[in-house]
Structures are given as structure tokens and as C-alpha cells.
Specification:
The chain has 178 residues and is mainly alpha-helical. The protein has two domains: 71 residues, Rna Polymerase Sigma Factor, Chain: A; 83 residues, Winged helix-like DNA-binding domain superfamily/Winged helix DNA-binding domain (Arc Repressor Mutant, subunit A). The protein is 70% helix and 0% strand.
């Protein structure tokens, strides 16, 4: 491959041919379009700088996708766990408070998970990525990803159903007649 030998025209051709595929892969893995664009650009910069170090031209696509995967995961780890939820119209201030308390309970339950379970749950259930994309992003097989996802959902469900996490004083106030 001429690009490996340092031919500038060949490198430019490889980069322009790879860009749409790298960008599409980044959009499927990264949390935001901005992160996807940054990850794709980072992969192409690394391609430009290190194309001569590739041993086989057939490894190019795999190598680029690994770079994108790494960049998306790096950006995901730096981002806050949950961003502010979009404002939801409620019928009353009481419903708004109850909704916010429930969001806080769910966020606390997710934050309490181990990092490997939290990653799978957030990528699959919060961000809505496909099972294959999540497995690929985390370097897991699909069955291993499904197993972690099941354990994460079960753990969150257990925390949310436990009475210790309920808001103190709220259930007693609702049960007592006024």
C-alpha cells in the first residue's frame, strides 16, 4: 500500500475513503453528535500520523474502528453520568416534585452500580444504542453484554423497590388522614 510508504496522495485517498465509514461508526457509538465528530476526526488524525506503522493494509478498518471505539468510551467516561432531564409538563407542583424525586431515585440507583454494569445500562437503556453496538463499544460478546445488562437492570430494580431508598416522611404523610 502506497499510503504506508508515505505517499501523500495515497494517504489523502485512504483518509477520504475512510471518513464516511468512520463517521457512521462513531455516530453509532458516541453519546452526542459532537463527540462522534470529534472521535472520527481523532481517528483520521491518528491515521494520518501513523499509517506507516500498519503491518497489513487489511488491518486498516479494524484499527480505525478501535480508535473510534476508544475515543467514544473516553469521552463517555468524562461526561457526567446523567444530564438534566428535559422539562416535562406536569399538572401540578406536587407532580413535579414527585417526578423529580423519582428521577433522583433512579439516578442514585444507577450511580450505585459498578462501572461495568453502569456502562452497559447507560449505553443500552439511557442512550438507546443497539445491543450489538454496546457490545462492540465495550469489547464484549453480545451474550456477555446481555448478561451484564440483565444484572444491571435487576440491581436497579432491587434498589428502587427497597423501602430504604424511599423519601423519608413522604409515605407516612400520604398514609395519615389530614
Amino acid at each position: 500500500m502506497a499510503a504506508q510508504a508515505g505517499d501523500a496522495a495515497s494517504i489523502a485517498e485512504v483518509m477520504s475513503a475512510s471518513h464516511p465509514h468512520v463517521q457512521r461508526f462513531a455516530r453509532s457509538l458516541c453519546a452526542t453528535p459532537e463527540d462522534a465528530e470529534d472521535a472520527a476526526q481523532e481517528a483520521l488524525i491518528i491515521l494520518f500520523l501513523k499509517v506507516g506503522t500498519l503491518r497489513a493494509s487489511g488491518a486498516l478498518a479494524s484499527w480505525l474502528f478501535q480508535i473510534v471505539r476508544h475515543e467514544c468510551l473516553r469521552r463517555y467516561r468524562r461526561a457526567p453520568l446523567l444530564t438534566d432531564a428535559p422539562e416535562i409538563l406536569t399538572a401540578s407542583a406536587e407532580e413535579d416534585v414527585l417526578h423529580r424525586l423519582e428521577v433522583e431515585r433512579v439516578a442514585a440507583a444507577i450511580a450505585g452500580l459498578s462501572p461495568d454494569l453502569r456502562q452497559v445500562l447507560v449505553l443500552r437503556d439511557v442512550q438507546g444504542h443497539s445491543g450489538r453496538a454496546v457490545a462492540s463499544a465495550l469489547g464484549l460478546t453480545v451474550p456477555a453484554m446481555k448478561s451484564r445488562l440483565h444484572r444491571a437492570r435487576t440491581a436497579v430494580r432491587a434498589v428502587l423497590s427497597s423501602p430504604e431508598l424511599e423519601t423519608p416522611g413522604l409515605s407516612e404523610d400520604l398514609d395519615e388522614p389530614a
